[in-house]
Write a structure and sequence with these properties.
single chain, alpha+beta, Aminopeptidase, disordered N terminus
Length: 180
């Protein structure tokens, strides 16, 4: 399935579809590409496909999907992914809120895919029963902060010095917005 409910949802250059198990190696490769620059994840070592199997299996297309973005005409070439994650500890009282994770292949950063996927997530969230979208971003990741702010997310909190990435201390910014 691709698009909002069925069919294809597109920008001029990009499209998205539900991730399949066959996409998991590409998703892991994209995630791992963000680890060395220490700007988008607290993982310090690459993750394996096997270590992400449970995460993928627990995603739910009707409530907490994982999408892959791709260039028009290349649906099998994953250029990035967006996942709707349980908020905080996943307790049922937090169900109206989704924690977004958005990662792009290095060749697709700054080319519009992130904005496309984020705009689609905002539009699609109410169909998932989501009223609030949130995410955490390192304060030093100004590109991601700008992307989310440009899509109506506001800073809801700042957690100083909570991440230590091999001696690089990072503040983490919580951003969010209503989509109801």
């Amino acid at each position: 399935m691709s698009g909002v409910l069925a069919g294809e949802k597109a920008s001029e250059s990009y499209r998205w579809r539900l991730a399949t198990r066959a996409d998991l190696p590409a998703i892991v490769e994209i995630y791992n590409s963000a680890i060395p620059d220490r700007s988008a994840t607290c993982d310090l070592e690459p993750v394996s496909v096997e270590s992400r199997e449970t995460w993928f299996a627990e995603s739910n297309p009707e409530r907490r999907p994982i999408w892959v973005g791709y260039e028009a005409g290349e649906p099998d070439a994953v250029a990035g992914y967006l996942s709707f994650e349980p908020f905080l500890n996943g307790r049922r009282g937090y169900d109206p809120t989704a924690d977004l994770a958005l990662y792009l292949h290095p060749e697709h950063r700054g080319r519009g895919l992130g904005g496309f996927l984020l705009a689609e997530a905002i539009a699609h969230a109410p169909l998932l029963g989501v009223r609030v979208l949130a995410t955490t971003i390192f304060a030093s990741n100004t590109r991601s902060l700008r992307l989310f702010h440009n899509h109506g997310f506001a800073e809801w909190g700042r957690m100083p010095a909570v991440a230590d990435l091999d001696g690089v201390i990072q503040d983490v910014v919580l951003v969010g917005r209503s989509v109801a």
